[in-house]
Specification:
The complex is a heterotrimer. By secondary structure, chain A is α+β, with helices and mostly antiparallel strands. Helices cover 30% and strands 24% of the residues of chain B. Classes of the chains: A alpha+beta, B alpha/beta, C mainly alpha. The interface between A and C is large, with 42 and 53 residues.
Chain lengths: 381, 329, 330
């Protein structure tokens, strides 16, 4: 409805010499139009901001994590999340702090019970020196975003070995968030090449590729993923396993994308504007780059956005079952392994935290995909 | 006089309240259509002619609001259609039975997954309690009447198995199956080939004579209007700008818009090699329109301070001929 | 129509051949062959292995032959119902599958029905009441449903029931029925346990089908034929269900083709989490133990299951949409 709105606001005739809002609308490029519509999708916009922040955290997690992810804090086995407080037990307002805790083994349930000690107040400090880490192997540092002195802080609690869950979730985000991107990139490349070949050549090639695509789409993926992941040799390094899992995820993921690319290509090829470009003597390269690509780039971006969360979920599931990412590397899925049986969840519900974060990330991706789809639809105003 | 009038529209206003403002699709239309007569409504796309047609049967989509009066004199006593609730029983009894409607795209106007026969006999059975075989018989009878060959076979066809012209015939059969007193034809021939157009127009004229009904014929095609209509209303931007008999409109067009329209028709045998006249500019969107003559921006006779001061009144220039232009004050 | 079905069946035969090759490769993937793993596991248990027996098994599975001959031997045996032996269970694979596959099929089909029975009415409601509070609420639930990994949902449900009702929702049978032979009481007991896995596996699918149904119906509601029906004087309810809802179902039918693989996929993982006596835990254990004949056979059977589902959905689509059968005939 932008056109009508602008025309109503500005002159109806459009005869004036200055560029009216209406004319600006008609002159806007495809990406400008998409951005304009995308901005209106409030949820998608907020999701974008959050996702960028989360990816930034994942990229630089060493700094944000208070501890090294493998460090075992023996005095804090399966400690519950600590609460950040602003008011102490006497009702005084203070800078953010946590109470110290002490624990004892409950001999009835054989579980450790943690009690806050309101006499011990540890203010949260920022930009503290702590454990040393190597940032992407580039340089060493011991600067952490936050921490407490003379005590420990576990905002998401700890696992059975006393490892800080927040640090592990942050560390896991690097694998969980990127494996989707790598997987989608591989699937996208395969899908574009094969879908493109299929749509471009047509005939027997098309038929064969389409049969393969239909075949792959009709298979149940999880059993096959499991089988392939189980075949990844146990000696492989974490990096090798990481890429092996990405490849396994994309083996079945490309088929859907190839189908989309082909379908869209075939559709666009028949459009009058493409035919008229050909009649006007446009070369294949010119037609592909200035007519076909803009026509479906937006469409592909939408599909890619929608495909990433699928990969994240798949990795989480594989790692959860112990067939994906392997220790010492951590992903959100491997962290969820600690929450496999109902008894441990019932006693330590904070072990579900990585799963909750997965839900949020996938939600953000879906909202963005939704917003992009609306924005990319030229018929929707 | 009142006896001759079948439908009387008084100061009809159909507004769409949108996020961006109020879209005044129809802004004060008054029309009357006599019994056994064909009223042609002509105008460019976006002038409000289709919305007028849909307003009569209260088929205006969601944010649309209808104000004014639409008196239908077909029943025992006059009914104001505009005041009826759009999904109530009262208007539903009139739809299809008293006033039927046919549409521009015959392909889109039938459901693709039901047979033609099913959709036509449904219209019959909605208003008359007929057993299925008899409704089917009536359907076949109607298909035959509109000139569909082998109607016993066609009745079980799906829309995709028929041509556009055939479907429009079937559409007419469906509309006329209950002998309505008024048929509203919303650009019924626009989507068809010229030869098929002529057939459909002949068919409609024949059936109008046979069945004795009134037709509101909506089109942007002046040739079709000249061929079909007894009376003509020229619409522009949600208002009737000129109204008269077909003779008055074609021989003595008075509104500058009508005149411009007439000049844009190519004439057979004219010697001139010049370009065909066309109207500058496009129809604006009536979103929160100012109170002025809607055609002022494109008018060659535009008088500053007069045309943009207020909406011109409808002026009688001769018997039965009205024009909405200050040039005739 | 018959022609179409026959052609589809022919395609399916080709697909099955392709599938069997994929599965055979998967069986061959782990290092070493089946028998070395078998012998190793027997020795690990302290059983002495008879060399003659090993040689006999070697011959039976053609382990010394070329891969192509091995494949041929495997697939011909498979077709005859001999799917090899599971060394972990020391039982024929076919027997193990006979125990578990029917439950997998039952669970998948129940979930499929659940998904469509829930999703279609909700999708219709959301479309007819577009932008209402109910529509928004259902959209939000749908988004969350699609974003939640199904095993996470299972864990949350288990946590919830354990914490607040003190009951465990795992399994398909109460403990007293697990070893019982089939009886009416056992079936009833199973039905009482069935809803948890069905809900968990079906949630994501339901959420996505609701969205498909909603947008498909919204598309149809604006179409000309709806106005035509209204102009005939039909009541809103009648015309809505006869025309747009009916037509919006068509794209839904075609989604069965990809819903079933999703459901079977989800079933595999949920069965592991909820410890259901279906093929899920079986394939999981088989993969961890590299019991490859068992794992391969399960992948094969599950894939065949989804292929049959796809075939059925394609035939259904032809039945409900006259336009398609027309194209095929032409």
């Amino acid at each position: 409805m932008d056109a009508t709105k602008d025309s109503a606001q500005k002159s109806i005739t459009g005869r004036g010499t200055e560029i009216t809002a209406e004319e600006r609308y008609y002159m806007a490029s495809q990406s400008q139009l998409m951005w304009r519509k995308f901005r209106k999708h409030r949820l998608a916009l907020i999701s974008t901001v959050f996702l960028i922040a989360i990816y930034f955290l994942a990229f630089t997690y060493e700094f944000w994590a208070p501890y090294e992810m493998q460090t075992q804090h023996e005095d804090y086995l399966t400690a519950p999340p600590m609460v950040i407080r602003f008011v102490d037990s006497e009702g005084n307002l203070r800078a953010p702090f946590v109470y110290g805790t002490s624990n004892e083994l409950n001999m009835d349930t054989f579980t450790r019970e943690y009690v806050e000690d309101t006499s011990q107040i540890y203010p949260i400090q920022f930009f503290v020196r702590g454990q040393e880490y190597s940032f992407w192997g580039l340089f060493k540092s011991d600067l952490h975003f936050f921490g407490v002195e003379n005590s420990k802080i576990f905002l998401l609690g700890t696992d059975g070995l006393g490892r800080d869950l927040l640090s592990r979730v942050l560390a896991g985000s690097r694998i969980s968030l990127t494996i989707g991107l790598v997987g989608v990139f591989l699937a996208f490349t395969l899908g574009c090449v094969l879908g493109g070949i299929s749509g471009y050549f047509g005939g027997a090639t098309d038929t064969v590729i389409q049969r393969v695509v239909e075949f792959l789409i009709s298979l149940p993926t999880t059993p096959l993923w499991l089988a392939l992941s189980a075949a990844v040799p146990p000696r492989w390094s974490p990096i090798q396993v990481y890429f092996a899992i990405s490849i396994i995820l994309s083996i079945f993921g490309w088929a859907g994308l190839a189908r989309v690319v082909r379908g869209k290509l075939l559709e666009l090829r028949e459009y009058d504007y493409v035919i008229s470009a050909r009649l006007a003597g446009g070369t294949d390269g010119y037609i592909i780059f200035s007519h076909l690509l803009p026509g479906f780039m937006s469409y592909l971006i939408v599909h890619l956005t929608m495909a990433i969360p699928g990969m994240i979920l798949a990795e989480t599931a594989l790692s959860f079952l112990g067939l994906g990412i392997r220790a010492p590397a951590v992903s959100w899925g491997t962290l969820m392994q600690d929450a496999q049986n109902v008894r441990s969840i019932a006693i330590h519900p904070w072990l579900l935290a990585p799963g909750i974060i997965v839900i949020f990330v996938v939600l953000f991706f879906n909202f963005i995909g939704d917003g992009l789809r609306d924005a990319a639809d030229p018929y929707k105003l | 006089m009142m006896n001759d009038v079948l439908l009387e529209i008084k100061n009809l206003r159909t507004y769409f309240k949108l996020h961006e403002g109020i879209l005044k699709a129809i802004d004060g239309v008054s029309l009357a259509i006599g019994r056994n007569r064909v009223l042609g409504i002509v105008g460019e796309s976006g002038c409000g002619k289709s919305v007028t047609a849909r307003s009569i049967l209260k088929l205006v989509p969601a944010p649309g609001k209808i104000e004014g009066e639409i008196w239908f004199h077909g029943g025992e006593k006059p009914v104001n259609l505009a005041a009826l609730p759009p999904t109530g029983n009262a208007i539903r009894d009139i739809r299809g039975r008293e006033i039927a409607m046919i549409f521009q795209e015959p392909m889109a106007a039938f459901s693709p997954v039901h047979t033609i026969g099913d959709q036509i006999s449904e219209a019959i059975q909605t208003h008359q309690s007929l057993p299925k075989p008899e409704a089917r018989g009536r359907t076949i009878e109607m298909l035959k009447q509109v000139g569909i060959p082998i109607p016993e076979r066609r009745v079980d066809n799906y829309p995709h198995q028929m041509s556009g012209g055939m479907l429009q015939r079937a559409m007419i059969a469906m509309a006329l199956s209950l002998r309505p007193k008024l048929l509203i034809a919303d650009e019924p021939t626009t989507a068809l080939d010229v030869t098929i157009q002529a057939q459909i127009l002949r068919l409609m004229k024949r059936l109008q004579a046979e069945l004795g009904m009134s037709i509101i014929f909506i089109t942007h095609d002046l040739g079709v209007i000249a061929n079909m209509a007894d009376d003509v209303a020229v619409m522009y931007l949600g208002r009737v700008v000129e109204y008269g008999t077909v003779r008055q409109i074609f021989e003595n067009p008075q509104h500058p818009y009508t005149q411009a329209l007439m000049q844009s028709i190519p004439k057979l045998g004219s010697k001139g090699r010049g370009r065909l006249a066309s109207i500058e500019g496009t129809v604006p969107v009536p979103l929160d329109p100012p109170r002025r003559c809607g055609f002022a921006d494109r008018c060659v006779h535009f008088i500053p301070g007069r045309c943009d001061a207020d909406v011109p009144p409808l002026i009688d220039t001769e018997a039965g001929h009205q024009v909405r232009c200050i040039l005739y004050e | 129509m018959l022609n179409y079905v026959l052609r589809r069946l022919l395609y399916m035969v080709f697909t099955l051949v392709a599938l069997s090759v994929v599965v055979f490769i998967i069986i061959q993937l782990p290092p070493g062959d089946y028998l070395t793993t078998y012998v190793a596991s027997l020795q690990a248990q302290g059983t002495t292995v008879d060399d003659q027996e090993v040689a006999a098994l070697r011959a039976r599975y053609g382990l010394d032959a070329s891969p192509i001959e091995q494949y041929w031997l495997w697939i011909t045996n498979f077709v005859r119902g001999d799917m090899g032996r599971s060394f972990a269970y020391n039982r024929p694979v076919a027997e193990l599958l006979a125990d578990r596959l029917p439950l997998t099929i039952m669970l998948s089909v129940s979930t499929l029905f659940f998904v469509y029975l829930v999703a279609i009415p909700i999708g219709v409601y959301s479309a007819l009441r577009q932008y209402s509070v109910g529509d928004y609420l259902l959209s939000i639930i749908g988004f969350i449903g699609m974003a939640t990994p199904n095993f996470m949902l299972a864990l949350i449900l288990m946590y919830f029931f354990f914490k607040y009702f003190g009951i465990s929702v795992g399994g398909l049978f109460s403990s007293e029925y697990v070893l019982e032979p089939w009886s009416l009481a056992k079936v009833w007991d199973m039905l009482q346990h069935l809803w948890v896995p069905v809900l968990v596996i079906g949630t994501a699918g339901t959420a996505s089908i609701i969205r498909v149904m909603r947008s498909s119906l919204l598309d149809e509601l604006g179409k000309q034929y709806v106005v035509t029906a209204r102009a005939k004087g039909l009541s809103e309810r009648r015309l809505t269900f006869k025309y747009p809802v009916r037509i919006a179902i068509n794209p839904i039918v075609s989604t069965i083709g990809w819903q079933l693989p999703h459901i079977v996929s989800g079933e595999t993982i949920i069965a592991i989490v909820l410890s259901l006596p279906t093929t899920g835990p079986l394939i999981y254990g088989a993969l961890l133990n590299q019991d490859m004949f068992l794992a391969g056979s399960i992948v094969m059977m599950l894939s065949i299951l989804t292929l049959i589902g796809t075939l059925i959905s394609d035939i259904l689509l032809v039945l409900v949409d006259p336009r398609i059968s027309f194209e095929k005939k032409a």
